[in-house]
UniProtKB/TrEMBL annotation:
Name used for this protein in its record: Secreted protein
Record flagged with keyword Ribosomal protein: no
Keywords for this protein: Signal
Signal peptide: 1-16
Pfam families (alphabetical): DUF4360
Highest taxon of the lineage: Eukaryota
InterPro entries membership: DUF4360
């Protein structure tokens, strides 16, 4: 009987070792740069189960209209996330989600583009499909959600890695003489979420 109990205890220990300890998963550092994210306008957070990283952008303000330049109508930001986790684990970026309260005038097209980069032993890069919103027919001060799967597997290093999130937001006109200065209703933030899937490390 004691032998059976010992075997059961060993097996239970083996199972426990294959479960990610979320208390050891954290964002060790976050920085950002670009004309779409001035200092103090981006915040980052991790969900309690460490499956979702949320980026909140407070100053994404592309502008289109008379006198607007290319840098006015297109804004960009690169967010660097240093993620630390147990050495026996790695993550895959499984998808991304855009969330916001948009207001777009008739004849205005907004596009949201993302590229993910993992700075591990071998830098890996993957593009995400572009989200396109067209004027008031699609969005007029309404809540908008876009869920995008990441079809190609982007696997992190073991124990730690840095995620580079390259975002670009742009406005363009589908007809002449259009004007758009603010596209987020009521100064609400633009939210982007990264969905992670955790796996035991394969070196």
């Amino acid at each position: 009987m004691r032998g059976l109990l010992r075997i059961f205890a060993l097996l239970s220990g083996a199972v426990a070792q294959t479960q990610l300890n979320t208390s050891e998963v954290s964002i060790m550092g976050a920085s950002y740069s670009g004309n779409g994210c001035p200092r103090g306008t981006v915040s980052t957070s991790f969900s309690s189960d460490r499956m979702i990283i949320t980026l909140s952008f407070d100053a994404v303000h592309p502008f289109i209209g008379p006198g607007a330049t290319r840098s006015d109508s297109a804004k960009n930001c690169v967010v660097h996330l240093q993620v630390k986790y147990p050495s026996g684990w790695q993550f895959v970026i499984n998808g991304t989600r855009w969330h916001g309260l948009f207001t777009l005038a008739d004849g205005i097209r907004a596009q949201l583009y993302t590229l993910f980069e993992l700075v591990s032993r071998d830098t890996q890069v993957i593009n995400v499909p572009t989200v396109t919103l067209n004027g008031t027919a699609d969005v007029s001060g309404q809540l908008f959600n876009a869920d995008l799967p990441v079809l190609d597997e982007l696997r992190s290093g073991c124990g730690s890695d840095t995620i580079l999130v390259h975002d670009r937001w742009s406005l363009s006109g589908t007809k002449e003489n259009v004007y758009q200065e603010e596209w987020m209703a009521g100064d609400t933030p633009l939210i982007q979420q990264l969905e992670l899937k955790w796996k035991e490390c394969k070196r």
